[in-house]
Amino acid sequence: MNFYDVNPALAEIRDGVAQVCHEFPAEYWRECDSARRYPGEFVGALMKAGYLAAMIPEEFGGSGLNLTAAAVILEEIHRQGCNAAACHAQMYTMGTVLRHGSDAQKKAYLPGIADGSLRLQAFGVTEPTSGTDTLALKTIARRDGDDYIVNGQKIWTSRAEYSDLMLLLARTTPREQAKSKTDGLSVFLLDLRKLVGHGVTVRPIRAMINHSTTEVFFENVRVPASSLIGEEGNGFRYILSGMNAERILIAAECIGDAKWFLEKGADYAKDRVIFGAPIGKNQGVQFPLARAYAHMLAAEAIVYRAASLYDAGKDPGVEANSAKLLAADASWEAAEACLQTHGGFGFAEEYDVERKFRETRLYQVAPISTNLILCFLAERVLGLPKSYG
Ligand SMILES: Cc1cc2nc3c(=O)[nH]c(=O)nc-3n(C[C@H](O)[C@H](O)[C@H](O)COP(=O)(O)OP(=O)(O)OC[C@H]3O[C@@H](n4cnc5c(N)ncnc54)[C@H](O)[C@@H]3O)c2cc1C
Questions:
Q1: Which residue minimizes the CA distance to atom 48 of ligand 1?
Q2: Domains of the chain: which residue ranges?
């Protein structure tokens, strides 16, 4: 099915990504899903083709592309029925090092991330007791001479078992002593290769989807002060500054999912003959797919509008959040229409619909839940009283 291409100038990138994806057909993803296996071969192929280093500047060995190009890459991966969740974090967590790291840190890490010899896939923010309320997180990093000593626990730290480095958000000043609510948190770049087994314990969580997600425990973990990114106490701002990029990239994945579901649903509706005619002849089958298509188009427009604002150096907080909300809704609506079109076969693993259905459901919750985006828009745009924090 040919979807209108909102970024024709990037068609070559899209085609290149599609070619890599063709090496990883549905059977591959089905097998990984069923065994809850990390799709390392797929990540390796994307890395080899240079797509995961898209946003790393050329001086550090990357392609120096903008966020729009990165969004096209992730969208196409999902459009082809693959899943970028195994590696997408590298694109946006790298930005924290790029924007706020010292020259020495950039030189030490970015070339390795660009050539694939260093994996920065783990991003530890969420904790079991604080959840969405990031400012209430309890993991603490206490300064001790030339080191910090880290204690605490993270949850849902995806890909920690398949990452060499981890970006960690921890409290360096107790909340009650911090200058303001948003002060006192700091970002660290941890070398998991040295720390796992030396105070850091990673415990996999078997989840509804194949996401290699984990709990990470820190017990008196000594890390050098040189792991601190930027200034101590400013970490929350650094993480926030990366969130627009994260939301836009995830929203692009949702658009890719929506297109996959629409094509899969329409193809099935044309082929499946019941009562002597293709089921797609019935408006009851057509309309949910057609409505989902229209909603996908609208969401796609705001995703790429947010990306171009970001690339122009603007602060697209409202657009990025709206894009994430609308794109996650569009993929979920398309998933529902596709599954319903397939009837009972939608539940059979060999059709892949149930797997993609589970996978795209995540975006209603992570990396930010729909409710919290609505809270943000209500407060920031509509001027309504803040309902959280
Ligand atoms: C598969 C998976 C992978 C993940 N990967 C990572 C990762 O790599 N790194 C990481 O740091 N985190 C990760 N997360 C965590 C994810 O970002 C959080 O699950 C998400 O932000 C929601 O937090 P929570 O689960 O603690 O929900 P809670 O904060 O407990 O919220 C529960 C529900 O209550 C609602 N709610 C809470 N407060 C309000 C309010 N004020 N108004 C209205 N509704 C409210 C929320 O919308 C939500 O639906 C992952 C999660 C999953 C499931």
A1: 369
A2: 8-115, 120-233, 237-380
Residue identifier of the C-alpha nearest atom 33 of ligand 1: 369
CA of 161 to the centre of ligand 1 (A): 21
Distance 246 CA to ligand 1 centre (A): 15
Average pLDDT over residues 93-111: 96
Confidence of residue 108 (pLDDT cuts 50, 70, 90): very high
Residue 134 alpha carbon to ligand 1 centre in Å: 10
- Per CATH, the number for 120-233 is 2.40.110.10
Residue ranges around ligand 1 (CB below 6 Å): 123-126, 131-132, 156-158, 207, 211, 213, 362, 365-369, 371-372, 375, 387-388
Evaluate whether 120-233 and 237-380 have a shared fold.
no
Options 3.90.650.10, 1.20.140.10, 1.10.940.10, 1.10.1670.10; CATH of 237-380: 1.20.140.10
- Tell how far the Cα of 247 is from the centroid of ligand 1, in angstroms: 14
Q: Among 369, 375, 388, which is best to mutate for testing ligand 1, by the most ligand atoms less than 8 A from CB?
A: 369
Judge whether residue 389 has pLDDT over 80: no
Q: Which atom of ligand 1 is nearest to the CA of 126?
A: 11
Q: Residue 125 above 90 pLDDT?
A: yes
Catalytic positions, written as ranges: 246
**CATH 1.10.540.10 for domain 8-115:** yes
* Phi/psi of residue 387, nearest 5 degrees: -105, 5
pLDDT tens digits for 234-289? 999 999 889 999 999 999 999 999 999 999 999 999 999 999 999 999 999 999 99
